[in-house]
Amino acid sequence: MLIFLAILSLAGSIHSQRITGQQKNGSCVCDVRSLAWTFPAIKYENVSDLVEDCGNALQTLQTQIEETKVTMPNLLATVENVTHRLGRFQYLNSNGLYNALHLKQLGEEMQQLQDIIDVTHNDNPSKETVQLTAEITQAKQKVEKMYKDNVFNLETVKENLRQLNNRAQSCRSISAEFRSTCSQRIMTNISSPVVTKLSSYGKSYISGAWGRETKPDSEERYWVQPLTSGHRSGNIMRWYRSFSDFMAFKDYKDEPVAPSNTHTNAIQGPGTMLYGEAVFYECYNTGELCRYDLKTKATVRKMLPDAGFNNKFPYCYYTCRDWSDINLSADEQGLWVIYTTMSNHGNLVVSLLDSESLNVTHTWKTHLFKKSATSAFMVCGVLYATRYVDTYREEVFYAFDTATGHEDNSLALPLEKVAAGVANLHYNPVDRRLYMYNDGYLLAYQAIF
């Protein structure tokens, strides 16, 4: 009876049954079977695993939320910055002005080029000028089609104009005699240094220029021009009347080109050149060129159109050479200026100068990004550029021929040096040597053709 009550109390309201027991060996034995006592172990394990997975997922989600809270301000700031920068362009585009303005500017550039080609053809007609006339006419027709179809591919047209302009400049400036005797004489090698000397100013003046008078038939002079104020500016050119005086650092004359290092006529950057009894350089703190006459002591200034200055476009291949935006160079054809403009996207531009008035007479635009080079110079109407190899080696890797407009970036002419930085490198057509200002050391090389 007690066994029956116990079973009944356990079963509760779920199920009840009467069980008959048997007495064996002084004990009451009974057999009880009930589904109510079966525990769902498998279901329990499944639910337990699901709860654990949910817990892990929630923990991962919580971590992601925390990380998002941290990064979201930066993302929002970036989006806001980009939106702000694109705002003015979106305004122009939505008001139908952006393309129209660019096409108008493009049309003006094409008309200027058309005028140059017409004048060149009238002065010296040739097969090339006839071809240029046909190509500029075709280019103008393409632009007219852009207006009609509202399909714009300005970069392609601008690149075409750049090439046409380079060819037109070559036609009007490079004589047939010059092409056959000079511009085809591409350098094939460069000697080891034939002069290696520490500047008389010492190694502390790491930026500057040096060389020999570069204009043929001029008085022989060797000169050194260090930048004595923060490697940025200077106002003294030291020159010697002979090579022996230079090697002995004796009987020199210090020529002041300006009253001080920060005077408006002071020298800025290491791009100085002595050419025909005058010192040519970038005027202090401007994009202007200065010409200081050694005889009259007078200074002529002229703005270099669209030129970058004040570290806008320095040479920068390995480490940037500050204040190297504009440098002068000379060769058999005359005086050149090498620089960069925004309109040429930071690529090198070379212009031929009138050495008396400083007026730009001809301009060529290259594809070489200036900050990918350590220096550039002119030889026989060809622009060369160098790049850093290591502390003791540079190499000439690029050439642009102004006579043909041809670019070659496959050169590998070795150039030894004694220190890492190249402040100035230029060619002298009188002795066909290259002169390098190498972190206070003065080096010269023989150009081999």
TrEMBL record:
GO terms for cellular component: extracellular region. It is found in: Secreted. The keyword Nucleotide-binding does not apply. This is Olfactomedin-like domain-containing protein. Residues 1-16 form the signal peptide. The keyword tRNA-binding does not apply. Transmembrane segments: none annotated. Residues 181-449 form the Olfactomedin-like domain. Keywords: Secreted, Signal.
